Amino acid sequence: MQLLPPLLLAAPSLVLSQTLTLCAYQGFSTFKVYDSPTPNGECYNLPGIPTGQFGPGNDWVQSYKVENGCCAFYKNAGCDYRFFYARNRGDSSLKIGEKNQISSFRCGKNCLAAW
Questions:
Q1: Keywords assigned by UniProt (predicted)?
Q2: pTM of the full predicted structure?
């Protein structure tokens, strides 16, 4: 019987956790970081912030980054009206029509068509 090298036996502990960074400014100026966001694909409604500085209520996201997984972003609370999926990528400046419009998201290890 052949034994695996010690490094391979320890590999499961090297699994990276998922991170979602949402930014209120273009260019990844960090505003809120979610570690292991909605790991089972549950819908998460963005919290509101005071109006005026970023826009109305929860519509403040201008840039984002998804690491080690997939997230779907929605216009409305309750994960209604999906804008797009993002798997292991980011955007330093959302396009017109999506910028300051995201109200909810869901994330998981993989993108799911049902989202």
A1: Signal
A2: 0.76
